[in-house]
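In response to reviewer comment 3 from the previous cycle, which asked for concrete evidence that the modeling workflow produces usable outputs, we include below a single protein chain processed end to end. The sequence was submitted unchanged, and the resulting structure tokens are shown without manual editing.
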Amino acid sequence: MDNYKGWLPKIKEWVEANKQNYMDDLMSIVSIKSVAQPGQGGYAMGEGCAKVLDRAFELAKSFGLDTENDDYYCGSAIYRGSTDDEVAIVGHLDVVPEGDGWDYEPYKPVYVETELGGEIVGRGSNDNKGPSMAALYALRCLKELGVPLRHTA
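The workflow returned the following structure tokens.
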């Protein structure tokens, strides 16, 4: 389809069919304690950050995306376009230390009903693990539907 608006119904259908998969995968990422501890275990940002990046790579590869690991300082999930030009969606998977006094355990994510339908509560679910997983799922959607990209994302 030359007109990208023609893709919208297929994308909406794909999103609806994959909501539970997204929530399950997000919960698997949120359950990883990824507080940066530079150098711990020989990793740039520590063992927890390495573990969460490895999980993100595992998901990206299962979605048919390429990955690049830059010595655990950062990583990329890639859907190749028809040119060498690139666009990026940037996010992070580390979290700040959890502290005390929270209503929910930080690394045991739960789905909570809200006035707007519901949300996943857990350390990093809104900053920035949820948005990072949404970006990964956007790439998955485009790849699985065969949406052609000019720029690599």
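The first strand starts at residue 66 and ends at 70. We consider this sufficient to address the reviewer's concern, and the full set will be provided in the supplementary archive.
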